[in-house]
Amino acid sequence: MLTEKLESMITVALADDHILLRHAVANMINRFPQCQVIIEAANGKELLTKLEKNNLPQVVLLDLNMPVMDGFDTADWLYRHHPSIAVLMLTMYESDQALIRLLQTGVRGFLKKDIAPDELEHAIRSVVQVGYYYSQHVSGKMANLFRHKNGQVMALEKATLSMQEFTFLKLAAGELTYKEIAAEMHLNPRAIDGLRDQLFMKLDIRSRVGLAMYAIRQGIVAL
């Protein structure tokens, strides 16, 4: 059981493009003993501009789907530049692909948007004191990724995408043409065709519409 007394204040940053929800969560956290929100931002890019080298938050609570810079990219940047910051992801998605990708970006825990205040408080204290927070439901989903099913390839191996595949999938679910995606990823069109066909085989999908639907179902992009 986590100790209730901490030596110092836990500082928290929030990034969520829903203003009312963000303010409500900030007010809630500020009512927790020895917890204080020091940064609020509408997206990942705004959050990064507000980070101060000498006053970094201990915990960052991110919404997964945000405009300009989403939770995936923000968590990845924080992991590479400030690995000491504990990132909690706030999302309604718990797909295998989303969980794996977020683990790869150093996310310390996952929270659903309908959690109770006491679970939010427990999660914040847990990532500071223990280093991670995973609900029983999420832990069960993660364990299932490592189990063989009828002698087939492990679910984890099938679900894991490379960074390049993941980036292509996000872009392919948007309005850019394949040629524009190639320019965005600094690849030649033939390489993009190869990525597309690779994902078709890996995900058992036969069209770009299918790729977009997969990305939406997995929480990689939002409607």
Write the layout of secondary structure elements.
Layout: E1 10-15, H1 19-31, E2 35-41, H2 44-50, E3 59-63, H3 71-81, E4 86-90, H4 96-104, E5 109-111, H5 117-129, H6 136-144, H7 155-159, H8 163-172, H9 178-184, H10 189-203, H11 208-217
Parallel strand pairs: 1-2, 1-3, 3-4, 4-5
Helix pairs in contact: 8-10, 9-10
Mean pLDDT: 82
Gyration radius over CA: 19 Å
Query: Largest sheet, described in full?
Result: 5 strands, parallel
Q: Count all strands and give the number.
A: 5
Cα distance spanning the termini: 40 Å
Helical fraction equals 40-55%
Instruction: Choose one word for the global shape.
Output: elongated
CATH class type of the largest domain: Alpha Beta
CATH architecture of the largest domain: 3-Layer(aba) Sandwich
- Approximate strand percentage: 5-15%
SSE pattern: EHEHEHEHEHHHHHHH
Report low-confidence residues grouped into runs of 5 or more: 1-6, 148-157
Can you tell me the CATH superfamily of the largest domain? Response regulator
Q: Kindly report the spatial arrangement of strands forming the biggest sheet.
A: 2-1-3-4-5
Query: In the residues, how many domains can be counted?
Result: 2
Number of helices: 11
- Reported by name, the CATH topology of the largest domain is Rossmann fold
Quickly give the structural class.
alpha/beta
